[in-house]
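FORM 12-B: Structure-to-Sequence Request
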């Protein structure tokens, strides 16, 4: 049975003045009244908007209690602290320390973090940080009500600037880690380029407990660079891929049915059937499988767990249309590397012409226009026949792609004009992707609303 902490217990562990019934045990923490569930403790953060102004809304929506720095005139138990952000982070840190699972895994990387988190949670049967709670607010919010008695916990750790992952490992020091790849996401925040990104992602490795291990793609030069740094010497590097003890063999696309491969380990190979699509997901699964097996989980159970993971909305979910068309919904976010990887996955599907609907990418720095143009060229070379691009760098994507591309200033133009979404052929295989800023999921919703779906997946 999972015993959550009462406010009295929380107060004893993180400090603060308790007002009201200390026996109340919040079922969760909430930082946003729009998503608050009844019974949660509302945390009033002082940010762009002062969370204290929303305490009344939280009470009306069924909050059980409040974490505040200023007592509120409300009939709710309250824990009053000097700094609600510091208290939130300490609550998450103390909860993890008190009910720490047998193995705690941290996952980061420029692309593939969330998919790898899901795969590693499947491989270990472990608890995972929900959704995208991978920052200095969301991670402690999730950890504050971490269940007890777990065999494993898988924590996604994201960053956009240096030092963020260091803060996360201070809140939740992992035993084992995964770095999926060192790419170009958030490049504009790193004047030293990819080395700066490698140093920031390497904060996960530096924050691992002594004697742990971390998995990374053997072919990634910046991951190999991390492994050679003095601050990484306290943990074991675990390269995964060609020439390494862990890797993947005989990878085969099954189209809509996913991927099949053999996971190579120091004790032989185990077959894996993934429901996720694309060779990039084989790599993610191999990274997750390698670190899980190295941490002591049985290879056969790991393989079954990897195969149990279903694609999520915005992260590889596939929708079949009547007449042979598809949408591959990868709308959650985008970088040059992830766009090309998802294009390769799209091309494994049977159907009509392969096309892309892409929102612009963000945080690529002064070279953003050139990177978009290069991505457009690479998409044409990969085999896309047409491209619909929207957003601030749509013209650069279209210029690189050449004939067959159309650029739109915003989603509304793409949605409404005659040569926009309505011009996509009915049987097309459609990749939808874009940065969070451009909300490319709107294109998925629009297409699903105006095209009849097939009754089930096709071979």
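FORM 12-B RESPONSE
SEQUENCE OUT:
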């Amino acid at each position: 049975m999972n015993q959550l902490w009462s406010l009295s217990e929380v107060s004893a562990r993180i400090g603060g003045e308790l007002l009201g019934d200390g026996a109340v045990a919040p079922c969760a923490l909430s930082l946003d009244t729009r998503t608050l569930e009844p019974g949660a403790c509302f945390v009033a953060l002082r940010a762009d908007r002062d969370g204290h102004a929303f305490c009344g809304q939280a009470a009306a929506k069924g909050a059980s209690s409040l974490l505040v720095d200023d007592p509120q005139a409300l009939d709710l138990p309250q824990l009053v602290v000097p700094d609600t952000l510091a208290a939130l982070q300490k609550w998450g840190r103390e909860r993890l320390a008190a009910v720490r699972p047998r193995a705690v895994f941290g996952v980061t990387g420029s692309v593939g973090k969330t998919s790898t988190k899901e795969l590693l949670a499947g491989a270990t049967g472990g608890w995972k940080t929900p959704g995208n709670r991978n920052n200095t607010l969301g991670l402690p919010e999730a950890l504050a009500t971490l269940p007890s008695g777990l065999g494993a916990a898988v924590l996604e750790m994201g960053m956009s600037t240096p030092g963020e992952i260091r803060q996360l490992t201070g809140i939740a020091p992992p035993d084992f880690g995964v770095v999926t790849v060192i790419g170009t996401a958030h490049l504009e925040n790193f004047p030293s380029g990819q080395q700066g990104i490698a140093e920031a992602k390497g904060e996960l490795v530096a924050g691992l407990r002594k004697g742990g291990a971390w998995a990374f793609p053997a072919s990634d030069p910046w991951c190999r660079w991390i492994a050679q740094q003095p601050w990484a010497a306290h943990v074991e590097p675990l390269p995964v891929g060609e020439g390494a003890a862990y890797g993947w063999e005989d990878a085969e696309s099954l189209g809509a049915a996913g991927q099949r491969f053999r996971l190579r380990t120091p004790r032989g190979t185990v077959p894996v059937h993934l429901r996720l699509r694309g060779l990039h997901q084989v790599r993610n699964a191999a990274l997750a499988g390698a670190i899980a097996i190295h941490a002591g989980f049985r290879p056969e159970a790991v393989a079954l767990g990897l195969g149990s993971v279903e694609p999520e909305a915005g992260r590889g979910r596939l929708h079949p249309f009547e007449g042979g068309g598809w949408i591959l919904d990868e709308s959650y976010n985008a970088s040059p590397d992830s766009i090309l990887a998802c294009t390769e996955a799209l091309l494994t599907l049977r159907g009509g012409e392969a096309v892309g609907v892409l929102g612009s990418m963000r945080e690529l720095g002064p070279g953003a226009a050139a990177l978009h143009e290069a991505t457009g060229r690479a998409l044409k070379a990969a085999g896309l026949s047409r491209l619909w691009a929207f957003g601030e760098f749509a013209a650069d994507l279209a210029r690189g792609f050449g004939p067959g591309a159309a650029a739109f200033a915003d989603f509304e133009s793409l949605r409404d004009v005659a040569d926009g979404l309505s011009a996509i052929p009915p049987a097309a295989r459609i990749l939808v992707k874009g940065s969070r800023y451009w909300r490319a999921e709107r294109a998925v919703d629009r297409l699903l609303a105006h095209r009849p779906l097939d009754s089930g997946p096709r071979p």
